[in-house]
Amino acid sequence: MYRFHPVVHWTNGYPNRKQIVSQVKELWKKYGLEEKTSFDTKVEKVYKDEDGRWIINDPEYGRFDGVIAAIGTCGDPKMPTLPGQEHFKGEIWHSSQLDGKSAKGKKVVIIGGGASAVEALEFVADTNAEHTTVLAGSEKWIIPRNPFVDILLVLNIFGSETIFSWIPEGILRLFFYRDLYDLSPPHNSGKGIFTETPMVNSAVLDMIRAGKASWLRGDTNSYDPRGTSLSFTQRARGVPKSGPGSEKHIDADIVIMATGYKWPSLSFLPSEVFVEPYDPPNWYLQVFPPSHPSLCATNCTYVNVIGTVGNYHIGIYTRFLLMSLVDPLARPHGWWMQR
């Protein structure tokens, strides 16, 4: 799925850093990009000259017809601290620091209930942890990693919640969640499947059914003074954050903070692309600012979405940009980009 060029081939579904770097280097050398690459160069501003060509920081780097901002949505890791953390006798990792780690035979607690938590759960399962407990603050949708199901979901042409969204939600609860339907967002909670980005994973619920993992909903309060567990308030389905619940102490040898990342800044772009109401993500196809159609911020502005990922949208949007640069008649008019 995450192939960024036709000659790229991964040995598994989630390539590690070594594989990714090796493929990037191979393409980089194949197309002679050594002379066209500037390392250790912070992009501070992007602007146009009097002829409408783009300048990156300074004219010494050249002038360009188009710009692709590909900084993604994951910047520095968010690493919040909890009261009593200094007493914890085990290890605390961020979900971005799992390469080379092992949780074999350990009791693991994962704090967070999003995509990072699911990836961390897969990691500890692969390293044969004794048991894993996910402490999630709220309910989030999980959908199966099945092309047929995922294609059906993205066929929603409105791209948002509709009066018929209860149909796919009900089908997921009935056939995918089944006995674990309590983990899905409750009816009328405002968390429809098209209101947030769901997690795509077919193994999580099976791990819970097999007793390898527990998924608890509630508020993580603090580390126990003994340094061997965490204090957690488990809430019933539908109870809001900080609402009433039962107090639990969750034993842990390892705590994984699946708390996400800070959003990388697009502040180097021209100020006019941030003028309301056409500020990101309210751009054409979410990646082309109406005021500058020769600028493409691929995979930088998404907030919540069900759609194509990886090489699909990267390749398609790059082709849109190239097409509009080569043939100005193919470039959408600013008025239509704002509709």
UniProtKB/TrEMBL annotation:
Gene3D superfamilies for this protein: FAD/NAD(P)-binding domain
Alphabetized InterPro entries for the sequence: FAD-bind_Monooxygenase_sf, FAD/NAD-bd_sf, NAD(P)-bd_dom_sf
Coiled coil: none
PANTHER family: FAD_NAD(P)-BINDING DOMAIN-CONTAINING PROTEIN-RELATED, L-ORNITHINE N(5)-MONOOXYGENASE-RELATED
Family the entry assigns: Belongs to the FAD-binding monooxygenase family.
UniProt name for this protein: Uncharacterized protein
